[in-house]
Recover the amino acids of this structure.
């Protein structure tokens, strides 16, 4: 049995715990301005949260955008969701949490009738997503001053 469990973040407390992980990873570690880390998409996204079994401490998070809310991230492609804001606390890395979060987001996408998932990967994370079946497309671009590539996986 793993040390953690991944679930949809349905309560306000779950979402706040996920936001705290995002703040730790993106704002504190990577220097992303806090005012751009949180956006209007957060209100309509499906959020997932990884928590430690022993004490329910938040370890990682991610979100899925779908339908009209994903159009800006997926180029408006029908049936394609957008995986984003994937973050794992520094102390919890190497436990398989990132993989579990991605798979949970993919399951949430399937449950909503989606046939593919797009994401904007930091270039330093390309290998991680490639190992999970994502393929890069398009040109490199900057997001929050960090180089990214668009990637997609057909479900």
């Amino acid at each position: 049995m793993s040390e953690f469990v991944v679930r949809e973040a349905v309560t306000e407390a779950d979402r706040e715990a996920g936001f705290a992980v995002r703040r730790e990873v993106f704002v504190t570690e990577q220097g992303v301005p806090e005012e751009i880390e949180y956006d209007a998409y957060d209100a309509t996204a499906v959020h997932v949260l990884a928590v430690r079994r022993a004490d329910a401490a938040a370890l990682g998070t991610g979100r899925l955008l779908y339908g009209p809310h994903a159009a800006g991230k997926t180029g408006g492609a029908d049936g394609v969701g957008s995986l984003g804001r994937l973050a794992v606390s520094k102390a919890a890395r190497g436990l398989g949490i990132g993989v579990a979060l991605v798979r949970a987001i993919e399951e949430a996408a399937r449950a909503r009738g989606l046939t593919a998932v797009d994401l904007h990967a930091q270039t330093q994370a390309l290998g991680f997503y490639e190992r999970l079946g994502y393929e890069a497309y398009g040109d490199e671009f900057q997001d929050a001053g960090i180089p990214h590539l668009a990637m997609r996986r057909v479900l």
In short: The chain has a mean pLDDT of 93.
